[in-house]
Amino acid sequence: MLTLTLGLLAGLLLLASAVMWMRRPRGQAVEGGAAPDFALRDQNGLTRSLGDYAGRWLVLYFYPRDDTPHCTREACAFRDARATLEERGASVLGISVDTSARHADFARKHDLTFPLLADTEGGIARAYGSALDLGFTRLARRKTFIIAPDGRIAARFDAVDVATHADEVTRTLDALRRAWSYPTAPPAR
C-alpha cells in the first residue's frame, strides 16, 4: 500500500513538473526593446502587420479565446475605449489563437470595430511571451503591450484585470505620450 501511494505521488509530481515546464514563458518581449514583427489575418481576411502602424501608438492585446466571459468583457471594454484611444493617436489590435472565421463571429456578435488577428499557430504569441502550450491545446495568455510610434515596446501588462484594464491602458498611454513629447525633462516654466 505504501509503495502504491509513493508511486502515485511520484507520478503526480512528474505530471505537475511537465505542466509547469509547458507553461513557462518563452520569447519575452521587453519594455524598451523592439516589438516583434507580425503579419496575421484579421476577422475580415485582411493581413495586418506591425509596419502598418509605424508612426502611431498601438495597443496590442493578447487574449485566450473568443466568446469566453473574461475575453468578451475585455474586448467590449476596448471597443468602448476605442474612440478615446484613437483621439490619443492609438490603434487597438486583439490577438488570439482562434481562426479568422471565429473572430468574425465574435466581432459581429459584440460589435467589435477593431481588428482581431488570428495567430492560429501561436508563433506571434510566443514571440511576445504570451503563448501557453498545454500539449493538447494552445492558448494566448492575457497580456497587453503598448507599442510606441518608433516600434519599441513602451509598456507591458502581464497582470490584467479585465474590469479596469482599458482604463489602465488609457492612463498609461497618456503618461507615455507626455514622456514621448519630452525625451528628456520637460522645459522649466
Q: Could you explain the architecture of this structure?
A:
Pfam families: AhpC-TSA. It catalyses: a hydroperoxide + [thioredoxin]-dithiol = an alcohol + [thioredoxin]-disulfide + H2O. This is thioredoxin-dependent peroxiredoxin. The structure is a single chain. About 40% of the residues lie in helices and about 20% in strands. It is α/β, with parallel strands linked by helices. The chain has a five-stranded mixed β-sheet. A two-stranded antiparallel sheet has the order 1-2. Helix 2 packs parallel to helix 5. The longest helix has 22 residues, at about 1-25. The protein is globular and about 70 Å long.
Topology:
Elements (H helix, E strand, L loop, with lengths): L1 H22 L15 E3 L5 E3 L7 E6 L6 H19 L2 E7 L3 H11 L5 E3 L4 H5 L3 E3 L4 E3 L2 E5 L5 E5 L7 H17 L8
Parallel strand pairs: 3-4, 4-5
Antiparallel strand pairs: 1-2, 3-8, 6-7, 8-9
Helix pairs in contact: 2-5
